[in-house]
Amino acid sequence: MDVLKVDQLTKTFGGLTAVDDVSFTIKKNEIFGLIGPNGAGKTTAFNLITGVYKVTSGEIEFLGEKIQDKPPFEIAQKGITRTFQNIRLFKKLSVFDNIFTACHLSAKYTLPEAIFYGALPNVLSKNSRYAKEERELREYTDELLNIMGLYDRKDILANNLPYGLQRRLEIARALAVKPQLLLLDEPAAGMNPEETNQLMNLIDEIRTKFNLTVLLIEHHMDLVMGVCDNIAVLNFGAKIAEGTAAQIQNNPKVKEAYLGEEDDELLEEIEREFEEAEAKMEADVEANAEIEAEDKIEVDVEIEAEDKNVKAVEVAENTEEHVEYTEAEKEIKVEEIKVKAEEIKEEVEDQIESEKNRDKKEEPDA
């Protein structure tokens, strides 16, 4: 089944042709890549599909219905949502509210219902269509937060999220509309290799979980080649190739578009420079390893000698302190003995004097 069919699509801005007679078809549940050098017309094609730009000529069919003259909100309601090359979140809203707001596109209750039942206590409004749908939308929002790995950050302002998580939030918000076709405009922009690999797995996961068809613009070739079923290549607004990842990689027109006409010579020069840089790096590593080994031996010897000197000094100091402490103890003991002897001597003299006085008192008077 054809989900999206683009037929001879053309867009001109004055005398400039941004998209030139482009045609491609995307099947149901397919991940389709749209690649090309900067300025090739990829984002312009996205803007034409989503109704941001008016088509100069050609047709766009979504599930058999022509949509090239529809406004963006009607195209979104029909089941096409997108992310943007430059992130466009509600930066002052929480992560939860960014997704919850988008969920309301699928709400069936009317504005008067929202105003009336929204003002009533939950006890009175809990059985209304408004209350039931609000509960369902909140549950769906929590589900999306869990899938995108954002649940533990749901109360944080969107503007305070790291860049990679802001990208995830934008995808989650696009999924909140429950689309059938999801357009991702450079979702891996600004991500490191690990984040890009996680995103590749995530795109494949949401395709399966939500029964989605995906149209993807991306400059990260490892992501495109790893996740896309088919790829179309644009250059100067025109389609120059279409096929599987293997077919695109080996297509001479694609190589020429990315590298220029002298692609073989350029590739050989790049490979030669890489080999020279790699050889120099290996030589530097070996030289540094030898220097580090020599330095380590010298340092170990110095440390060992210093440790021995320190231990010798400590032993000497401890011995000296012990000798001094022993001599001091002896002096204290002698002094204590002398004091004790003096005390005993005084006691004896006092006792003798006391005896003499007692004898005198006992003698009879003459």
Radius of gyration: 44 Å
According to DSSP, the number of beta strands is: 10
Secondary-structure element pattern, one letter each:
EEEHEEHEHHHHHEHEHEEHHH
CATH architecture verdict of the domain at 1-79 and 179-260? 3-Layer(aba) Sandwich
Q: What's the overall geometry?
A: elongated
Biggest pleated-sheet summary: 6 strands, mixed
CATH topology of the domain at 1-79 and 179-260: Rossmann fold
Indicate the mean pLDDT: 80
Tell me the CATH superfamily of the domain at 1-79 and 179-260: P-loop containing nucleotide triphosphate hydrolases
Spans of at least 5 consecutive residues whose pLDDT stays below 50 are 321-325
Report the CATH C-level class of the domain at 1-79 and 179-260.
Answer: Alpha Beta
Distance between the termini: 157 Å
Relative helix content: 55-70%
- The main sheet orders its strands as 6-7-8-3-9-10
In percent terms, what proportion of residues is strand?
Answer: 15-25%
Structural category is alpha/beta
Count of alpha and pi helical runs: 12
What does this 3D model show about the protein?
Helix content is 56%, strand content 17%. It is built from twelve helices and ten strands. Residues 321-325 have low confidence and may be disordered. The chain has helices at 42-49, 72-78, 95-103, 111-119, 122-125, 129-147, 163-175, 193-209, 221-227, 245-249, 252-259, 263-362; strands at 2-13, 16-27, 31-35, 57-62, 65-66, 80-82, 181-185, 213-217, 230-235, 238-243. A six-stranded mixed β-sheet has the order 6-7-8-3-9-10, sandwiched between helices. Among the domains are: 1-79 and 179-260, P-loop containing nucleotide triphosphate hydrolases (Rossmann fold); 90-176, P-loop containing nucleotide triphosphate hydrolases (Rossmann fold), CATH 3.40.50.300. The N and C termini lie far apart (157 Å). It is an alpha/beta fold and 366 residues long. Strand 9 and strand 10 (238-243) form a beta hairpin.
